[in-house]
Amino acid sequence: MIVHRSVESWVAVKRGLYQEPLGFVPTMGNLHAGHTSLISKARKECDVVLLSIFVNPTQFDDPYDLAQYPRTLQTDLELAKENGVDHVLLPETDQIYSDGYTYQVHERKLSQSLCGLSRPGHFDGVLSVVMKLLQIAQSSVDPTKQRAYFGEKDLQQLVLIRNMARAFFLPWTIVSCPTVRESDGLAMSSRNSRLTDDQRSLAPLLYRTLRESGDALTALTLLTRVGFRVDYVEDTDLDGRRRRLAAAFLGNIRLIDNVTLDQEPAGPSL
Ligand code: PAF
C-alpha cells in the first residue's frame, strides 16, 4: 500500500494506471465497518483501489463538530492495508483549497431540503470537495473503468453526488452501498463513538422507529417522546424509491438514518 501525502505524488502514479479499472473510496477517516464494506466492494469490482482520507472543513457548519471529529490516522492506515487498499491519498487542506474556497459547487434544489435546511452550506462543502477529489482521482475517461463508492446512510449526499456526476458529465460510475449496522440496528457512523452509554442505548431506536412507524409524524412523535431532539422525519421519493429519512440529536450528537418504504413496508404504529 502506497501512502500519498500530496496530490502530486498520486498524480505521478496514476499516469501509469491509465484505463486500469479504478475503485475510489473517499472518506474523512475514522474508518469503521461501513467504510470497509465500501473498500471490499471496490476491491471485488476493480483492479486498483484508492482511498482518500481528508477531513473536509467546508462541510462542517459547526466549528465544534469539526474540532471534535475523530482523527485516527494510524488505525485507519492499518485497516486500509488489511482490506486491500492499494493507494491512500492524504491531501493537505491548503492543497485542496488553494483557491481559498472561492470556487464552489452549489446545487439549488435537493441540497436545500432535509439535512440542508438545518446545515446551511453543508452540501456545498460536500459537493465541492467530492468534485475536487474525483478530478484528482480520475485516471481515465471511461466511466465503466472508474467507480466511486458511497454509503446509503448518507442518502441525500449520495443522490446529490450521483446527480452532480451526471450534470457535469464526470466520467465516473457512482456506486451506492447498503448501510452497515451494529447488531442492534444502529447505522455505523464516526459519530457513534461520541455517544455516552445512555445515549448509545437509545440510539438504535432511531432505525427501529423509522421502520416500524406507520407515518413520518408518528415516528417524529415517538422519537421525541423517548428523548431525541428531532431535526426532521420526512417521507419522500429519492433515487426512484419511496424513502423515510430522519436526522435527530442525542445531546449534541446528530444522527441520521433512512429506510426504504417500498421494500420494507411500514408496520403497525409502535
Ligand atoms: O461521507 C463522507 O465521509 C464525506 O462527506 C465525503 C463524501 C468523504 C466528503 O468529504
User: N-to-C terminal Cα separation, in Å?
Assistant: 49 Å
SS content category: alpha/beta
Please indicate the count of domains.
Answer: 2
Average residue-wise pLDDT? 95
**What percentage of the residues does DSSP assign to strands (E)?**
15-25%
Q: Based on the structure given, which CATH architecture of the largest domain is correct?
A: 3-Layer(aba) Sandwich
Series of H and E elements: EHEHEHHEHHHEHEHHHEEE
Uncertain runs: 265-270
Largest sheet: 6 strands, parallel
> Which distinct ligands sit in these coordinates?
pantoate
Give the strand line-up of the largest sheet: 1-4-3-2-5-6
Q: Figure out the total of helices.
A: 11
Tell me the CATH superfamily of the largest domain: HUPs
Report the top-level CATH class of the largest domain. Alpha Beta
